[in-house]
Automatic annotation (TrEMBL):
It comes from the Bacteria. PANTHER family: ECTOINE DIOXYGENASE, PHYTANOYL-COA DIOXYGENASE DOMAIN CONTAINING 1. Keywords: Dioxygenase, Oxidoreductase. Its cofactor is Fe(2+). This is Phytanoyl-CoA dioxygenase family protein. The lineage of its organism: Bacteria, Pseudomonadati, Pseudomonadota, Betaproteobacteria, Burkholderiales. Coiled coil: none annotated. Pfam families: PhyH. It comes from Undibacterium danionis.
Length: 352
C-alpha cells in the first residue's frame, strides 16, 4: 500500500489509535521492521517489550536510585520489610530530578509512540518505585483517559533485574480490547457521593471480566534496561513483593497524545455536568497542553464550569458568590464550601 493510501485510511478514523485501528494491517504494512514488531505486540496483546534506547542507561539508573533513595524515610522501609503497607513511590520526580525527566522525555521513545498511535506523544507524569507496586488488577483508562478514547499509554522501565520474588508486573494479554467501562456502566453517579471514589468500586467488575473471558495473566520478568509499553485499557497490576529485603527500582512514564481532551472518568459524570478535566504540563518542554476536541481548543469557561466537585468542591469555588446565590445558606451561617459538598451539589444549588 502506498503512502497516500495509508494517509487516506488514517483520515477515515483519526480518532482511533493506529495500534487499535480496524485498518491496523494496512497502516503498518510499510513501517520499519522494529516498529511493525512492536505494533503487532500492542495490537494483539496490549503490551510490547523493548530495550530502553538510552546509551547511558546504567549510569542514569544508578544516579536516580541514589538521588531518590533520600525521599523514603526509614519508618516506611521498616513497615515494608515487616510485610506491612507502605506507599513507597514518588509522583512526578521529574520536577526535581533531571535524570528522571531525561528518561521520561527520551526522544526515541516519543518518536516510537507517535508512530504507533498516529499522533504526537508527550509525557505528562512519572512514578518512581524502589519496590514492587503490588497494585491490584486495574485499567489506567479510568484514571487517565482521553477524548477520543485510548490515546494514552504507559512505559515502564526496570532499573534493576526483576524476579518472581521482588514484585514483577502482571497483565492480561488482549484485555485492552475490552470496552472502557466508566461510572455510568456501574450505575454510579460519583458527583453525588459524600466521599472521594476510588478504583475499588471497579475491581469486582474487572475480576469478573477476566473470569468470563477465560483470560490468563502473564508476568514480566525484566532485566535492567528492559521496558514495557502498555495500552490504556490493559488490565494489569503488581505481583506480591515476596522478598522484603530486595529492592525493585523502576520508573513509569505516562503519555498522552496531542489534539485530544484529557480527563479522569473516575471523577466524572459528563451527562450530570461534571468532568474532571486534566490541565497538564508536557514534561519534555514544560508547556501546558491545551485540551482540544476535533481540532478545536475547549473553552476554559466550559472546563471550569464542569469541574468535578469530588472531593474538594468545584474548581475555583467562590464562597461569597455561593452565599449570594443561596441566601438561606448565608442566613443559616453555614460554611459555604462545606454546605455545597454535603448538600448543595446534590440539591443542584446555583454556584453564583
Amino acid at each position: 500500500m502506498n503512502q497516500n493510501s495509508v494517509s487516506n485510511l488514517r483520515r477515515l478514523l483519526p480518532g482511533v489509535p493506529n495500534i487499535e485501528s480496524p485498518f491496523f494491517e494496512s497502516l503498518f504494512a510499510n513501517a520499519e521492521p522494529h516498529v511493525q514488531q512492536i505494533a503487532k505486540q500492542l495490537h494483539t496483546n496490549g503490551v510490547a517489550a523493548f530495550k530502553f534506547p538510552e546509551a547511558e542507561f546504567d549510569q542514569l539508573a544508578a544516579d536516580i536510585k541514589a538521588s531518590l533513595s533520600k525521599s523514603f524515610n526509614e519508618q516506611s522501609w521498616a513497615r515494608f520489610r515487616a510485610g506491612g503497607g507502605a506507599d513507597l513511590r514518588l509522583l512526578n520526580a521529574w520536577q526535581v530530578d533531571a535524570n528522571v525527566r531525561r528518561i521520561a522525555a527520551n526522544q526515541s521513545v516519543i518518536n516510537l509512540l507517535s508512530k504507533l498511535y498516529g499522533a504526537q506523544a508527550w509525557p505528562f507524569q512519572t512514578l518512581n518505585f524502589p519496590v514492587g507496586t503490588q497494585q491490584a488488577l486495574h485499567s489506567d483508562a479510568i484514571h487517565f483517559n482521553s477524548v477520543p478514547e485510548r490515546f494514552m499509554c504507559g512505559v515502564w522501565v526496570a532499573f534493576e533485574d526483576v524476579t518472581v520474588d521482588n514484585g514483577p508486573l502482571f497483565y492480561y494479554p488482549g484485555s485492552h480490547r475490552l470496552p472502557i467501562y466508566t461510572n455510568e456502566h456501574l450505575g454510579r453517579c460519583v458527583s453525588t457521593l459524600p466521599t472521594r471514589p476510588d478504583q475499588t468500586m471497579y475491581e469486582p467488575m474487572w475480576r469478573a471480566l477476566v473470569e468470563a473471558h477465560g483470560m490468563k495473566p502473564k508476568r514480566f520478568l525484566a532485566k535492567k534496561g528492559d521496558a514495557l509499553i502498555w495500552a490504556a485499557n490493559l488490565l494489569h497490576g503488581g505481583s506480591p513483593h515476596i522478598n522484603r529485603e530486595a529492592s525493585r527500582w523502576s520508573q513509569v512514564t505516562h503519555y498522552f497524545f496531542e489534539d485530544c481532551a484529557w480527563y479522569s472518568p473516575l471523577f466524572s459524570d459528563p451527562f450530570y455536568g461534571q468532568i474532571y478535566f486534566r490541565k497538564l504540563i508536557n514534561i519534555q518542554n514544560g508547556h501546558f497542553m491545551p485540551n482540544r476536541y476535533a481540532g478545536w481548543d475547549i473553552p476554559d469557561q466550559f472546563i471550569d464550569s464542569t469541574r468535578s466537585t469530588q472531593p474538594d468542591g468545584p474548581y475555583h469555588f467562590d464562597a461569597n458568590a455561593y452565599l449570594e446565590a443561596n441566601p438561606d445558606v448565608a442566613q443559616a451561617g453555614a460554611d459555604a464550601l462545606q454546605h455545597y459538598i454535603l448538600h448543595g451539589h446534590a440539591e443542584r444549588r446555583r454556584l453564583r
